[in-house]
Every structure is written in C-alpha cells, then in structure tokens.
Amino acid sequence: MSTGSGASGAAAGPRLDPGTIADAASVALEHLPVEAEQVVAGSPTTGHLVLDDDGERTVGVWEMTVGAMRDVEADEVFVVLTGAATVEFEHPHASPIVLAPGSVVRLESGMRTIWTVRQTLRKVYVSP
Questions:
Q1: Which uninterrupted H or E stretch holds 81?
Q2: Which residues face 71 on adjacent strands?
C-alpha cells in the first residue's frame, strides 16, 4: 500500500535503537476510513505506524480491515504478520496473489492494485 517514506531530503523520523524490540504484532495503530474513491467493497479502514526512518529507508507496520480497496503502490518489501487477503494487479497485469502469515512480497512504485482483505491484514514493510 502507499506507505512510502515521503519527500526526499526530509529529516529523519523515528529511530529504533540498536538492540531494542518493537512488537509489530501488537503495537496499537490508529485507523482511518479508506478514501471513498479507493473503496471497492465494504468499509475498510487502514492504519500504519513508522517504526524507523533514517531518511534513506523506512520500516513500518500497516494494517487493513475487512473490505476491498484500490491503491497505487510504493517501492517496498513486506512480510505479512496476520490476516488473509488477495492482491490483484491491474497494472502491470499479473496473476493475483494470496496473502497469509509469512508471505513475503515485493511491490514496485506505480503498480495499480486491488486489495481484498478477508481477515484483518497486518504487515511489516521496508521501503526506500
């Protein structure tokens, strides 16, 4: 999902101290409704939290509730922690993928997708 790190040249954000733990599976996330023009089905909400941002790469947690939405992706690699979903690729066209805990996926900037979440989906992502 569009969880990019923002404008280039921006000041570094939150930092994880070496040797510390961030519990990505249970950290509280503030959810907001998905923008109406992105909603495909249901009333999904999303929440995310940046855990570490050194100005060159961002590590964060992102979550989406049950429903379906369209998105334009940022460059990222993510690992699914919990939930179940299908991601369809509208552009460039590719076969849909089914996400479950442990799924590791790489997305490229500009990909147009449809996310259909069957069980609230939580992932950890890394983006440049």
A1: strand 76-91
A2: 113
76 three-class SS: strand
pLDDT reported for residue 16: 85
Q: Strands 76-91, 112-127: parallel, antiparallel or unpaired by DSSP?
A: antiparallel
Model confidence pLDDT, tens digit, residues 73-115: 999 999 999 999 999 999 999 999 999 999 999 999 999 999 9
CA distances from 69 to 61, 81, 128 (A): 18, 20, 24
- From CA 95, how far away is CA 89, in angstroms rounded? 7
**Two structure tokens written together for 24:** 């990505």
How far apart CA 126 and CA 128 sit, in angstroms, is 7
